[in-house]
Amino acid sequence: MSETAENTTNPNTPYRVLARKYRPQTFEDLIGQDAMVRTLTNAFASGRIAQAYMLTGVRGIGKTTTARLIARALNFQKAGEDTGPSVDLSVKGEHCDAILESRHVDVIEMDAASHTGVDNVREINDAVKYKPASARYKVYIIDEVHMLSTAAFNALLKTLEEPPPHVKFIFATTEIRKVPVTVLSRCQRFDLRRLEAGLLVDHFQRISDLEGVKAETEALGMIARAAEGSVRDGLSLLDQAIAYGTDQVRADDVQSMLGLSDRARIIDLFDAVMRGDAAAAMDELEAQHNLGADPEVIMADLAGFVHWVTKLKVSPKSADDAAVSQAERTRGKEFAGKLAMPVLARSWQMLLKGMEEVSRANNALMAAEMLLIRMAHVADMPAPEELARIVKGADSGSAASSAQAAASSSAAGTETGSSVATSSPTPAQVPGSPPVTHAPVMTAAQLKPAEHDDDGNAAEKPPQPTGFASFDELVAYVSSKRDVKLVRELERHVLPVSVGTGRIELSLLPDAPAGIANELSRRLEAWTGNRWIVSVSTSQTPGQTIADQKRERRDDLFRRARESDDVQAVLKGFPRAEIMEVRDLRAETAAPIDEQHGFDEEATDDLAD
């Protein structure tokens, strides 16, 4: 992580990999961790030094290196003078070399992955009693601390909470969630953040210059992206790329070394898909596959470019990212200007689901080809709002609004099935339809639930009805009480004879359940507090039940919807679309209460029965 590392070359010394050779020697060498460095600097300057530190972050971000720097700072001492702990490590002190080389007797490094038991912690508890041999503090650095057993953590708690003044603990872990909260609460926690690709590219460029290696910026960008924010991973890849390219780091070599697809060809593949040219997209995929690119990697790179174009469309300043090639910047801007956001969002969702299919498929290439064919097929499909304009041209008005609603529903219906909703301001929603009459409903005052005053006591209840003007009003009242079973029985099996104040006469169909009249009388008395007489007429009353009337209205709405020119135009454009539902929006405002509350005849069959 540092360009100020030991860079002398001796033929007799073994080669040191870049990740070790360029380890930070001072806090200033830590890149991308400014918040932690500032906190530690201020803490040491003011003497507010914690007894334990917890360092967490992704692999290769510098946790162990930071732990050693803290140990150096705690024990920093120049020859012949003792100025106390200091984060100024520009000049090495008496103990610095031994700490950096992990051989200092008072700085004990322990790997918790191989020392997981309570016996190992017991050794620490016994050793902390003794003062350091030569340094100011005895420092315990425990790496991968989350690997300790539960008993080991518990054994460490007392010492960690009240250590002797000459003891400090520094923990490092990649799995912070596995560390008990009882341990975390006794430590100062520092989250070493993942480094951005731009910072890594600059860092790799400095190291390449120090090594005398000519490196292309695009190649370093590939390495930075593959490192995923890890400095050690990136330096290991840079080391490998230098050896692969014989002291040169070229984009083509890195691409071949990592098995990546050519970024320019990924853009060409994206272009073919967005043009709806499935044949060209399949040819490009096959060509990249023949060159050794993995179909799963190609799809991941394609998703990455979709994300890049979307990012440019939302935030054009993102083009300044140093880890992105010039071709991605230039052509990404072009696509961002041409493609609509719904198209990019749809492509992202299809790739996200398709990549799972490619990873699970026995033949990844075939799965990738099918994914590209699907994407190319829908690439030139107009958005619902565009489809409405296609159907009606540039006209505006109520007819255009109706076509837009129908187009939106039918377009969605090609995948999952949807509804066609009519919404003109007149009561008759489809041209040429007769007026629609609706059953009267209870007033808002009658249906409003009991309110409560500020003290939580029930306020005065609204007056309950003593009679009903019609049978529909009676059914609406029962529906407002959420008695689904009784509502369905009244709608399906009952014809009204007379409805008045305190008296109701009904005519029952042959299939009516027994005791429906008594049940209605009992429920009305419980709800209203008044006595109701519900009788059954012995003569058959002509007419239709409410359920039959609803069914007829529904069939009539479907018939009028199919005869609508706008709906026929949409169905012609989408031959596989089906009309799943027709809603009269004007009628809904005056529909019976059961419809307003979402009671559905088919959906509540089992409950009613």
Concise summary:
The protein is of the alpha/beta class. It has helices spanning about 20, 35-45, 65-75, 95-100, 120-125, 150-160, 180-185, 195-210, 215-225, 230-245, 250-260, 265-275, 280-290, 295-315, 325-340, 340-360, 365-380, 385-390, 400-415, 445, 470-480, 485-495, 515-530, 545-565, 565-575, 585-590, 595, 605-609; strands at about 50-55, 105-110, 140-145, 165-175, 190, 215, 250, 420, 495-500, 505-510, 535, 580-585.
Commentary on this structure:
With 609 residues, this protein is of the alpha/beta class. It has four domains: 33-191, 3-Layer(aba) Sandwich (Rossmann fold), CATH 3.40.50; 197-258, Helicase, Ruva Protein, domain 3; 263-379, Zinc Finger, Delta Prime, domain 3, CATH 1.20.272; 428-444 and 464-559 and 573-609, no CATH class. It is 50% helix and 9% strand. The protein is built from 28 helices and twelve strands. It has helices at 18-21, 34-46, 63-74, 96-100, 118-127, 150-161, 181-184, 197-211, 217-227, 231-244, 251-258, 263-274, 278-290, 295-314, 326-338, 341-360, 364-379, 384-392, 398-413, 444-447, 471-480, 484-493, 516-528, 546-563, 565-573, 585-588, 593-596, 605-608; strands spanning 52-56, 107-111, 138-143, 167-173, 188-191, 214-215, 248-249, 420-422, 494-499, 503-508, 533-536, 582-584. The strands form four sheets. A five-stranded parallel β-sheet has the order 2-3-4-1-5, covered by helices on one side. Helix 9 runs parallel beside helix 11. The longest helix has 20 residues, at 295-314. It is flat. The two termini are 73 Å apart. Residues 1-8, 397-450 and 590-609 have low confidence and may be disordered.
